[in-house]
Amino acid sequence: MHHNQEEQSVNPITAQHWPAHHSDSNSLGSSLGSGPTDQQPPAYSKLEFRRHAVIDDYKITAQVLGLGINGKVLECYCKKTGEKCALKILYDTPKARREVELHWRVSRGPHIVRILSLYENMHQGKKCLLIVMECMEGGELFSRIQARGDQAFTEREASEIMHDIGTAIEYLHHMDIAHRDVKPENLLYTTKDSNAALTLTDFGFAKETTLHNSLQTPCYTPYYVAPEVLGPEKYDKSCDMWSLGVIMYILLCGFPPFYSNTGQAISPGMKQRIRLGQYEFPNPEWAEVSEEAKQLIIQLLKTDPNERMTIGQFVNHPWISQSMVVPPTPLHTSRVLTEDKELWDDVKEEMTSALATMRVDYDQVKIKDLDTSNNPLLNKRRKRPAPGGADRGGDGGGGDGGVVCNSQREVTFSE
């Protein structure tokens, strides 16, 4: 949907409605997750929409900051303060209202993008919901790591990042909300400063996880999808824990644990590997990574949701809660991300396009033909020799867990 002068919005919400700043994240870690289950979640102010034109309060530019699951995000400036903000535009549907409600409910949480104002306006004859949020000017998580150049990214830094993401998920789960789409594109920095806060964005797939509203509809981004989402099992907050495991894996090496060798968004072979939990920690990328980090990933990527680590266990794990004692081991991550910069963008585009078509029941998922889908990331990864001449693409080298590629169709499994 393109912005024009017909778009409307509302006045900024009064001060008492503004969420708390992210700086309370350290105190949250000790108060959530491991506490009593009957503990009352933090109070949040009532959701209120303004009904006058958003352009009365904000100057909206044509700059598109991002594309969320349910709508685009535009750049805007508060006319009163000059503050740069982000405006998300949604057609008024029950699904859009759910996104706004759940995001508003957790907006004051740590490491979660803040909502500043909410509007109900007409646009081209249709009612729209407009969300004015703080602007994430620091860019995506992995873009920042990739841009470091010769400055090595360390295991300790990976621990600190996972602590921040975990703090956000802990807050959501404490509020009985599952995000269901935790992935690199939805992890953005507030500013370009080195000490900027990392925030979780886009609540288009968020859902309450109360007893009468269990998660049953698979919707996912292929590289970050939990095994139970691919099958008939019901799933819950453990989806987010699986995503944490995949994000942590990429942070420590620069590539994901599960690949689609065929170039499909999610091939049958990749789907089976995810369900069977088949991945590796190949050298040289994993040679110096601590055993503690690897064991934590294993606990997060358990295929049985009942065995998977909970968010309370995660934030209290020493590798997360005691980042200062995690070894500052230089990792291969920034090098790998730099090598695959263009391909990584292609993968993100493939994942974004796949999101819209994969929000269906597991037995209705449509896998695109090789002729209509080509994901070059892993094709290139498989062909490029690793330092020292070893090819990660061979058996035992590329995280495929005994996978043999059948060039005519899909990935098959070796005995």
From TrEMBL:
InterPro entries in the record:
Kinase-like_dom_sf, MAPKAPK_C, Prot_kinase_dom, Protein_kinase_ATP_BS, Ser/Thr_kinase_AS
**Keywords assigned:** ATP-binding, Kinase, Nucleotide-binding, Phosphoprotein, Serine/threonine-protein kinase, Transferase
Q: Which domain of life is it from?
A: Eukaryota
The positions annotated for binding ATP are 88
Q: Where is this region: Disordered?
A: 17-43, 372-415
Q: What class of enzyme is it?
A: transferase
The reply to whether Disulfide bond figures as a keyword in the UniProt entry is no
Any Pfam family: Pkinase
Comp. bias intervals (Low complexity)? 25-35
Coiled-coil features, chain-numbered ranges: none
- Gene3D superfamilies for the chain: MAP kinase activated protein kinase 2, Phosphorylase Kinase, domain 1, Transferase(Phosphotransferase) domain 1
A Gene Ontology MF term for this entry?
A: ATP binding
Write out the similarity annotation: Belongs to the protein kinase superfamily. CAMK Ser/Thr protein kinase family.
What is the name listed in the Swiss-Prot or TrEMBL entry for this protein?
non-specific serine/threonine protein kinase
